[in-house]
Request: fold
Amino acid sequence: MVPATRAVFRELLRRELEERYRGSLLGAAWLLLLPLLQLAVLAWVFGQLMPARAHGGELPYAAFLALGLWPWNLFANAANRGVTALTDNAALIGKVAVPHVLYVDVRVAASVVVDLAGFLLVLAVLLAFGVGLSPWGLPATAAALAVVAVYALAAARLLAVLQVFLRDIATVIGQLLVLGFFLTPILYDRSLMPAVAAKWLGINPLVAPVETVRRALSGDAPDWLALGLSLAVGVALLLLANVFFRRARSHLEDFL
Reply:
């Protein structure tokens, strides 16, 4: 990225972070409070109302849930924000001579920054409540979150282009993310499922990073092979998204 483009990226990132909750009562605090509220509700429902279905192994269920929810949120929020990045910036795209992909990358970067801040806050809360988390698992956790970020960037770039040509994509992706939430082991432990179901769910490439975060911070050895395979698929998808973006670039302004 050339210096001029980096400067534009930083300015767009600052604007994105400032404008997300400008004018709201609590401002940027909502960026952290909403996921915490979501965690509290899910932990109460599955930990108290439906305890037979809640099982976090050695971890308290709220901790088990948090360590799966935040990697998913990192992916889902970035993909959901990125899908309209080009259509929302249609006026700028015709006037400012910067790579179109920059608008998508800024949305993803802003979303990832917010979710990482939320994840650090959650880890601090868990430690404050006496949940035993292993500091030796932090490198593996960082690697797993990086894999999730690769998927988020690939999905955002691909979906942002599709949204320019098919304006229904933003609506459809919301429903697909709900489905993906339940097909990812966030609320449940995949090891407790029937072998056939667990095997099929393992096809989901986000399973490996989610389970890596849980295993690493619980003090267990991560499955580096599964994480490496997930990374390989993510990189392939990102390369495919880049090719698709480049080929569609000359037609984007006509449809915006």
